[in-house]
Fold this protein.
Amino acid sequence: MLILFIRAFILYFIVVVVMRMMGKRQIAQMQPFELVITLMIAELAATPMENTSIPLINGVVPILTLLSVQVIISYLSIKSESVSNIICGKPSILINKGQIDQSELRRLRINMNDLLEQLRLKDYPNLSDVEYAIMETNGDISIMPKVGKTQVLLEDLKIDKQQEQLPVTLILDGQLLTKNLHNAGFNEDWLTQQLRKNNVSKINEVFFAFLTSNREFHLQKKQIS
């Protein structure tokens, strides 16, 4: 029992020191290679901790090896942009000048619901307020709003305003969401008129269409592959 306690203490101390040397990033901020190394270190530490028949050095040496690998890769990434692009990847522009980059969404296997969720988490429920949306190499999304859409607290301006409604998705990848349309208080004839105003004749030509919080209609046509 005492041996297990001592082995666990030693491995815990080593892992804490190694993680401190790797940096202070949170899990969500880690690059893919850093997350892989972290998971491997956890597994290497658990094995000799559970099995006393395995020499402690068999867990310590691989952990220190992974630390060395992490330090070397981080150093090379700082010194070489090419290495950084290979190891960490490049940021991806999902919304460019207010237009959704459909090919980039397909390449990253991100659907519109995922994108809208991330915008809401960043306090931008209206896609029409976004000029640029960039997926960073750690998987987080950075938002650059359109001019005049930068968020300001109304209480700071001493302005009273009623609660806005949520945006409503009407067309998603060429498919009409009939229930959403009717719940918003509109019908197919109204939608047809809106499509004609935007020089669209068929619903299947639309990649994404929605009503903003202010009940304004917006759409984006499908990109021709």
Summary: The chain has a mean pLDDT of 83. The chain is about 50% helix and 15% strand. The first helix runs from residue 2 to 22. Residues 2-87 form one domain.
